[in-house]
Design brief:
single chain, 207 residues, mainly beta, Immunoglobulin-like, 2 domains, 4-stranded antiparallel sheet, 46% strand, elongated
Length: 207
C-alpha cells in the first residue's frame, strides 16, 4: 500500500496447536518464541502507529495444546473512502506463523549424577522437587557447608550444616527457587561433592 491514512478493523485471533511429549516426561514450562512469531500486541490505544510485527502474543500451554493469541489488522478503506479489499497486516490469518518451545524433563532420557571425589556420594529426592529436597548420604560421611547454584554459577542459597541425622539425611527448604536446574555443592574437611536437582513447580494456566 501507498503511504497515507487508512481505515480498518481489528481482529484478536486465538490459534490452537497440538503437540505430544513422551509419557515419561513432565512439562516444566512453555513459551512463545517472539522473535520468530508474527502478530501484534493488543495494548495499542489512541493514535495508532503500528510497531514492527515482533510476535507480541499471549500464550497458554499444557502437555498437549498451545493456544496463542495475537492481533491482526484488516485495512478496508482509504482515508478518502475508497474500498480496499483483503489487505491484512502483518499477514492474512491463514498465513500467520508462530514458533514456541517446550521445556520438559524426562527421567528416562536425563541422568543426573553425583560429582564426587571418591566413592562416597549423596542422592537428592524428590527430583524434580517443588518446595524442599532431602539429601541422603550413601555412607557415614557428614555434610559441612553447602551452597546451591544455578547452572550459570549464581549462589541462590548458602548454609552450614554440621552433620546428618540418625538416618543420614537432611531436609533443605528450596521454596524460594523458580523452575530450573540447580547444583548443590557441599564440603567438609575430607571432601567436596555436588549433586544436580530440578525445581518443577506447576504454573501452567488452564485452557
Amino acid at each position: 500500500m501507498l503511504f497515507g491514512n487508512y481505515i480498518g478493523s481489528v481482529f484478536d485471533i486465538t490459534y490452537t496447536f497440538t503437540h505430544a511429549i513422551p509419557a515419561s516426561a513432565t512439562l516444566l514450562d512453555g513459551w512463545v518464541r517472539n522473535s520468530t512469531s508474527e502478530g501484534y500486541g493488543n495494548t495499542v490505544t489512541g493514535t495508532l502507529i503500528l510497531p514492527q510485527p515482533n510476535g507480541s502474543v499471549e500464550v497458554s500451554i499444557n502437555e498437549t495444546t498451545a493456544q496463542i493469541r495475537t492481533r491482526l489488522y484488516k485495512v478496508t478503506h482509504s482515508f478518502l473512502g475508497a474500498d480496499i479489499s483483503d489487505v491484512w497486516i502483518p499477514e492474512p490469518p491463514e498465513d500467520i506463523f508462530f514458533n514456541y518451545s517446550l521445556h520438559i524433563f524426562d527421567h528416562l532420557a536425563t541422568k543426573l549424577e553425583s560429582e564426587t571425589d571418591d566413592s562416597k556420594g549423596f542422592i537428592v529426592y524428590p527430583n524434580p522437587a517443588t518446595d524442599h529436597i532431602t539429601l541422603i548420604s550413601n555412607s557415614d560421611i557428614s555434610v559441612g557447608n553447602y551452597n546451591i547454584y544455578t547452572l550459570e554459577g549464581k549462589v541462590v542459597k548458602t548454609n552450614k550444616h554440621y552433620g546428618l541425622n540418625a538416618i543420614n539425611s537432611i531436609d533443605i527448604d528450596v521454596s524460594h527457587l523458580i523452575n530450573g536446574i540447580y547444583i548443590i555443592r557441599f564440603t567438609n574437611s575430607e571432601s567436596s561433592s555436588a549433586v544436580q536437582f530440578i525445581i518443577a513447580i506447576n504454573t501452567l494456566n488452564p485452557l
